[in-house]
Amino acid sequence: xxxxxxxxxxxxxxxxxxxxxxxxxxxAEGLSYQTNSPRPGWAEQNPAEIYSACINxxxxxxxxxxxxxxYLTFSSVMHSLLGVDQAGQELTPLIIWADTRxxxxxxxxxxxxxxxxxYQHTACPLxxxxxxxxxxxxxxxxxxxxxxxxxxxxxLIFKLTGQWxxxxxxxxxxxxxNLEQVExxxxxxxxxxxxxxxxxxxFSPTESFSFQINGKLITGLIGAADGVLANLGVGAVAxxxxxxxxxxxxxxxxxxxxxxxxxxxxxxxxxxEQDFYVIGEATNxxxxxxxxxxxxxxxxxxxxxxxxxxxxxxxQENGLICIPTMIAERGPNYNEDLKGLFYGLSLNHSRQDIVxxxxxxxxxxxxxxxxDVKRVNGQEPGSITMTGRLGLSEKFMEFTEYLIxxxxxxxxxxxxxxxxxxxLGVKMVEGLTYQAMLKNLPSRQTGDFxxxxxxxxxxxxxxxxxxxxxxxxxxxxxxxx
Length: 481
Known about the structure:
The chain is of the alpha+beta class and about 475 residues long. The chain folds into 2 domains: about 1-225, Nucleotidyltransferase, domain 5, CATH 3.30.420.40; about 235-410 and about 450-480, Nucleotidyltransferase, domain 5 (2-Layer Sandwich), CATH 3.30.420.40. Helices cover about 35% and strands about 20% of the residues. The chain has 15 helices and 23 strands. The chain has helices at about 45-65, 105-115, 115-120, 130-140, 150-160, 170, 185-190, 225-235, 285-295, 300-310, 350-375, 395-405, 415-430, 435-440, 455-475; strands spanning about 1-10, 15-20, 25-30, 45, 70-75, 80-85, 95, 150, 165, 175-180, 185, 200-205, 210-215, 215-225, 240-245, 250-255, 270-275, 275-285, 320-325, 340-345, 385, 410, 445. The strands form 8 sheets. Strands 3-2-1-5-14-13 form a 6-stranded mixed β-sheet, sandwiched between helices. A hairpin with a 5-residue loop joins β2 (about 15-20) and β3 (about 25-30). The radius of gyration is 22 Å and the shape is globular.
């Protein structure tokens, strides 16, 4: 008997699913870990803690499936960076996507080379989340060059196998990989002062290797990045199928059989395989902002914060607008000077008003990114599928329908990225195409929402005011200086 696992290393935790060849879910479990943010702009994690969480889940898998032939595909969050020595020992914390300390280096790169050079070579906007600025900053901050610069997935695989390897999608989402040449971009590496030998070799997502857990042999597949696999895991593999993911951050994505570049240098393009590209845009502020509110208002869980404070639809508009750029902005305009803002705040506003304004702002920003990605896609989506812990909540899906249109989802299905990873194993071993596997995915449903026309008009008016405030402060380069 064969079983296919998908291990997804996320921002706030790691998730593991196991399916059979028909994609029937046999096992699902997760473990969480912490992000350390002691100062503004810092977002670090302990790679050893993440490794330990992964190993604990893998031990549970082999205990649960002792007689199965196991295949495990690896997925991970994008943009993480870690400096290590020749033995693979970490010499820095893991710097994750939310860390903005390399922003000054990003500004230096734009002044000296122009942001277009980086986008045209890599299809990644010039931003502190990507590696060109981070590599320069990391060396300077820690005052050393490193044997290797790696992501969290490369760290885990090296610990398991002793091999350095990364996949197409992680490499192409780093901002240092040339999509046309399908290799690291030598000009950008020269600018960053990094030798190609300091980076892991790049492989297709079905590149396999072997390792043991508790004495049991497992066949590993290198897999892909989480954003790429999120589309696959819900069966959105056509260019007219959009996927919205709203978790710690948020993103909008669609699939193309060829690379797609944006004339505005904003919408990114990442590669899964030679004929499978994921095009999209992401924001930094989503569930992480609700966690921030829960902390400052003294709630243990975000769910408790929302239950106590989020107003039921329809509600009366309160005049308070939040611009949710507390972490340096990514899409749509990549303005890293932009700070978070409450506009219209008065003594009459309550905690409930503040929570509702932040919640609205997450949906508003998703709407802006959705429209920007649709501009590049050039067609109306035939379907919109929602994923992510926050996105799959009933209230957020209702907000999304008011702003964007009808969304579908797979009920009780929050592990779509890990399932997408497992599907790569099924594809390789069983010889199935992606289309052949889609019939085995659970059926999608739509929310049973009856939209209130008056509230829809109210929300549309507030969204227009939100955009006016956003553009006023975003386009004024001196506003925060």
